Amino acid sequence: LASKELKKEASLVRVNDQVCIGGQQLIVMAGPCSVESEEQIIESAIAVKAAGAQMLRGGAFKPRTSPYSFQGMEEEGLKLLAKAREVTGLPFVTEVINPETAELVAEYSDMLQIGARNAQNFALLKKVGQLKRPVLLKRGMSMTIQEFLMSAEYIMSEGNQSVILCERGIRTFETATRNTLDLSAIPVLKGKTHLPVVIDPSHGTGNHHYVAPMCYAAVAAGADGLMVEVHPDPENASSDGAQSLKPVKFAAMMEKLKLFAAAA
Ligand code: PEP
Ligand code: MN
What is the tens place of the pLDDT at every residue in 145-190? Predict the structure, then answer.
């Protein structure tokens, strides 16, 4: 179902009346790694909207490597994301970490995110395949492109064709960056599938200094969208502060991005 052999034309994934991913317009989803408070998510939403982002991101259920790290605000976080949407009009994407809470997350959100750690959680993939929400599927950290497409197939074979593929860096021997952002995945995926491709340079590099250059490169390489972590106070973020852009830096990046998007 994901293959280009069966469907030649690019798929458009519609989020709401304003936002459609996979068409001419580059879609930018931005916001904090985790929802931390009402002020934090609303301030983030207003800032990313002002800079030109079309969607808000924010985690309410966090799949943390350590069980002792902040696990997210859960349903309270979903409510705050909905409030931020009310204030700004931005639809939001948020992660779903297990089949049990998938329906709850879908009730609040505009798009479901499957994180890298769950990219081969087949029960979860099947579950979101049965829900009526677009799904942003992240590439697992050790996943081949073929395995990535098979995970998309799990969602689509349950009836949900609104799948967006997100490259967010893979594990290599390199330690200078958190992950190795595989930008070659863009043309490779474009050759194999009609599904839209989004790049997440925040998790891809793990360092806010590297985020803007990778955004420009992703657009030049043909990405349909970007997912960028932005936090009003990265030094005190509950998660992923080191890779989060301050709102002013994000706004400057968005300004420069227009030049690359126009040329692409
Ligand atoms: C996230 O988007 O905050 C996240 C946990 O991403 P990933 O699954 O790519 O690590
Ligand atoms: Mn994060």
Answer: 999 999 999 999 999 999 999 999 999 999 999 999 999 999 999 9
Angle formed at CA 67 by CA 144 and CA 44, multiple of 5 degrees = 80
Q: Measured from the CB, is residue 31 less than 6 Å from ligand 1?
A: no
Distance CA 133, CA 30 (A): 19
- Does this model's pTM top 0.90? yes
The finding on whether 138 has its CB within 6 A of some atom of ligand 1 is yes
How far apart, in whole angstroms, are the C-alpha atoms of residue 229 and residue 176? 19
CB 227 within 8 A of CB 166: yes
Structure tokens at 57: 């991101």
Name the percent of the chain in helix, strand, coil, to the closest 5. Answer: 40, 15, 40
Ligand 1 pocket, residue 115 CB under 6 Å: yes
Interface pTM, i.e. ipTM: 0.99
Tokens coding 202: 């925040």
The closest ligand to the CA of 240 turns out to be 2
Q: How far is the CA of 155 from the centre of ligand 2 (A)?
A: 23
8 Å CB contact between 132 and 12: no
**And the tokens for 179?**
């992950």
CB-ligand 1 contact for 33 (6 Å cutoff): yes
- Helix and strand counts by DSSP (H, E) for the chain: 9, 10
Contact 240, 33 (CB under 8 A): yes
Which protein residue's CA is at the shortest distance from atom 4 of ligand 1?
A: 115
Domains present along the chain, CATH in parentheses: 13-263 (3.20.20.70)
Contact criterion met (CB below 8 Å) for 138 and 116: yes
